[in-house]
Amino acid sequence: MKNIPRIFIDQEIKSNQIVAIDKSLSHYLTHVMRTKKCLCFNSGVEFSANLADDERSLIIGEQTNHSDPSGDIKLMFAPIKRLDDMLNMATQMGVACFQPVITERTVAHHINWERMKKIVIEAAEQSNRNSVPEIRQPIKFSDLNLSNICFADERVAYGRPACAIPTDAKSILIGPEGGFSDDEFSALDSADACGISLGKTILRAEVAAVVAIGKITQ
Length: 218
Prior knowledge:
By secondary structure, the protein is α/β, with parallel strands linked by helices.
């Protein structure tokens, strides 16, 4: 089903269901993609669908045999200025959940989360996922459970030994543009969080997220 548009439907869907759509989606299918056929997905499943004759709804067809390639990784991160790039790339890599974390050096406090949600939906549609990652409400670093997590440890670039990545690692923490504070590093170390190496150079936060995801999913 290559080149058929994929549409996220923000409700439970099943065969023979009729789903109302807005004018922008109808216009996208008929005028941009020049088709009345599409694939609809949510909650890990995908269905074929056709635009109704009135172009105001989709008629859901049969469930496809496409399995969801998404994983079960949770990405915890300090909001950054280039957050849209981070969420886009991490969604493409199969992240299941995004947890914003407010650290001491977080500078991007006013994020348009509705816009971020649209970005991850578009990334999920493009990347052949059958699900859209959850974006949770921001929490403070002090309220974060630091046990059983891996974090991008910039100290490794300066000679600190890296932690061996556990085979069952599911959670990654990425710091802000200015890095973790001394107190935050102390808290991570005290909780025996796993500081992993991202190489010998200091990476931008959005790049660090992608490299870290790759390391624990390889």
